[in-house]
Amino acid sequence: MMSPHSTPTLLVPLKLVSGHSPRLCTLKTNVMFLKTHKTASCTIMNLLYRFGEKHNLTFALPKGYHFDYPNFFNSRSVKGFLGQSGQHYNMMCSHMRFNQPEVQRVMPADTFYISILRHPVSLAESSFNFFKSLAPAFKHSPTFEDFIANPWKYYIPYLRFNHLARNMLWFDLGFDHNAEFSLQSAQSVVAEIQQTFHFILLADYFDQSMVLLRDALCWSLDDVVTFRHNARTNAKPKCLSPAQEEQLKKWNALDWYLYQSFNKTFWEKVERFGKRRMDKEVAILQARREELQNLCLLKEGKPPKVKQSLGQGVQRCQTGYVTMMKHTLNSNLSISDKELCSRMIREEYEYTDLMPPCQGCPQLGPYQ
Known about the structure:
about 375 residues, 5-stranded parallel beta sheet, 13 helices, disordered N terminus, galactosylceramide sulfotransferase activity, golgi apparatus, glycoprotein, P-loop_NTPase
């Protein structure tokens, strides 16, 4: 059983990697990540699991591989949660449809809330390929171009898993993805999200997002260095015409408004952070990633292992009918490097299976 958990305030010097003087900041260890679909969210989960393991933090874990998605989150779906006063966890990051009151029952009051968005045009293209066998609207559409031309021909509102075909981000954040677009109601929803979430990352500017996240959480550089997870290997994004892109924006009008709003606030954050400083820190982040990739990953010889995903429901990160990239480690790693590299490539469901279910349970092994 989880015991009541409180995290002491810890001021640590944040080592700036761009030549600026270190500053004192508060290390944040209570984090809720609303995992959205096809937005590099599996990559974010890897860094959260690694950080939690490193600091011996507790995770609110689902009884399966998601919190009863696509239903609204309910605290009863958390493994081992008894609803007792003071029973909280440090981290929460598995798939859910957001339900703030229920999340607040599980997470401490000082939790840092984050999520991630992606441009709706590229998101729609990726989702069509990934969820082709799961979303009825996609399944019945011969091609992505056919779907774009006449989505209502294939789309039936409120049919299970059809939320994957329209305003998917709006749905995951807990709102009605089939609602007619209204500027006033969209502004109200965005204001509510801004009040709840401390930072919204953008998958389209992933490295800049990692720099800002690191700064907000007072984490180290290696805490936010990641390899790509759950990326497809057998298809390139389609080149769409301007007219097709506009059609997708209209079809996903709620997501498009959401993205535009948080794209604006994202670049305001970059402006405050400093563009020159951002460019330097992104370059250092990318250099460190390349260094770790060269250390960890097999590049020559046999190709990386791949796996087929056949869409048996939204249970794990892989749910569509596409070939997904699987990293392969170099074979000549030292014991400590192999431990580090194994954590870097460990996938969401593998971490979920291995994470201890309670505070004080044995960890996976000594963290290197």
